[in-house]
């Protein structure tokens, strides 16, 4: 009997959810942060979606959000021309980093000592968080707004994607451009997988996988609809993607075969990411919600409880879940 995917719905935002990120696995589990146009990024328990707190202080839409590995710090990028660093335990604002235009992306180095930002002023900036008064290092080269910037290769290099239809690889020490990829259309998302140095990007209906160090193409997969975001499972067996048709798709990484598709959102999917343990993936949408989806449907995990048919009365044998279809977290 086929198992039914039952997503957990995380409400609380009042505008479209445009970015999300998981922490690493900590002694307290793992955590999820979401960026929303309502200007109020939220922190949640990663495996259940339970709300922990909201970071208050931005005066415009928040376009990017991230957590450091141990979930002690958060960073956000906003339309109020600032990036902010937060204490993710207390929720307090630690730093406000003024920019000259809308900030779209923020990411920590592995040691949490530096923050990389990018946005509509076309510059990459590296802030030394131990000396916040110091001017940031700046890297110029993109000819239009930067959408995403990520550290790679043990923080020795930087990957950036921009509205100029390019992805560029930069050397951190020399601040020079190493290589550029040019596309026919703007890249909608970019994910870096350190284990194996894989870069996952989306543009149009295409999900493409590149070697992050050489920028050599590994493979491309065509989806049924325009895709805004994709994420590769930690074990690289499959990947998920979401986009304009409100659906989440799951593909076999090796064969490129579409394995499953689910519709749960009531608007385009803007972002999707696997949890660090690979047991679930989270999606954020134009509809203002986050949803958590099980990687292995029917497994007991987090708030999901699998009940075998023989454990139910005959009259309930059709139902495999004790949870209702919509769980508000």
Describe the structure.
- It holds the Pfam family WD40.
- This is Serine-threonine kinase receptor-associated protein.
- One of its GO terms (biological process) is spliceosomal snRNP assembly.
- Keywords: Kinase, mRNA processing, mRNA splicing, Receptor, Repeat, Transferase, WD repeat.
- By secondary structure, the protein is an all-beta fold.
- 0% of the residues lie in helices and 48% in strands.
- The protein has no helices and 29 strands.
- The protein has strands at 8-10, 17-22, 31-36, 42-45, 51-54, 62-67, 73-78, 82-87, 93-98, 103-108, 114-119, 124-128, 137-139, 146-152, 157-162, 166-171, 177-182, 189-193, 198-203, 206-211, 217-222, 227-232, 238-243, 247-252, 258-263, 269-274, 280-285, 290-294, 327-328.
- The strands form 7 sheets. The chain has a 5-stranded mixed beta sheet with strand order 26-27-28-1-29, with no helix packed on it. Strands 2-3-4-5 form a 4-stranded antiparallel beta sheet, with no helix packed on it.
- The two termini are 28 Å apart.
What attributes does this structure have?
Serine-threonine kinase receptor-associated protein, four-stranded antiparallel beta sheet, mRNA splicing, single chain, RNA binding, disordered C terminus, 29 strands, globular, WD repeat
């Amino acid at each position: 009997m086929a198992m039914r995917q039952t997503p957990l719905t995380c409400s609380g935002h009042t505008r479209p959810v445009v970015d999300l990120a998981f922490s690493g696995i900590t002694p307290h589990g793992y955590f999820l942060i979401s960026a929303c146009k309502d200007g109020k990024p939220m922190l949640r328990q990663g495996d259940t979606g339970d709300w922990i707190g909201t970071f208050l202080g931005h005066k415009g839409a928040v376009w990017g959000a991230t957590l450091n590995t141990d979930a002690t710090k958060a960073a956000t990028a906003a339309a109020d021309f600032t990036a902010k660093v937060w204490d993710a335990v207390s929720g307090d604002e630690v730093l406000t980093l003024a920019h000259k235009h809308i900030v779209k992306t923020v990411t920590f180095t592995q040691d949490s000592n530096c923050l990389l930002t990018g946005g509509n002023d076309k510059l990459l900036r590296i802030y030394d968080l131990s000396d916040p008064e110091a001017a940031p290092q700046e890297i110029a080269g993109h000819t239009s707004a930067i959408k995403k910037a990520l550290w790679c290769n043990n923080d020795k290099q930087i990957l950036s994607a921009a509205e100029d239809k390019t992805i560029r690889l930069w050397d951190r020490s020399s601040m020079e451009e190493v290589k550029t990829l040019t596309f026919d259309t703007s890249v909608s998302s970019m994910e870096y997988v350190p284990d194996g140095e894989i870069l996952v990007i989306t543009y149009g209906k295409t999900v493409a996988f590149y070697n992050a160090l050489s920028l050599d193409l590994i493979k491309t997969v065509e989806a049924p609809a325009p895709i805004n975001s994709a994420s590769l499972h930690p074990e690289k067996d499959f990947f998920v993607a979401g986009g304009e048709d409100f659906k989440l798709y799951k593909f076999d990484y090796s064969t490129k075969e579409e394995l499953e598709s689910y519709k749960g959102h009531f608007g385009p999917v803007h972002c999707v990411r696997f949890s660090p343990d690979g047991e679930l993936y989270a999606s954020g949408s134009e509809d203002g919600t986050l949803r958590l989806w099980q990687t292995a449907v029917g497994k007991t995990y987090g708030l999901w409880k699998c009940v075998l048919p023989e454990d139910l009365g005959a009259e309930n044998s059709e139902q495999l879940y004790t949870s209702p279809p919509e769980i508000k977290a």
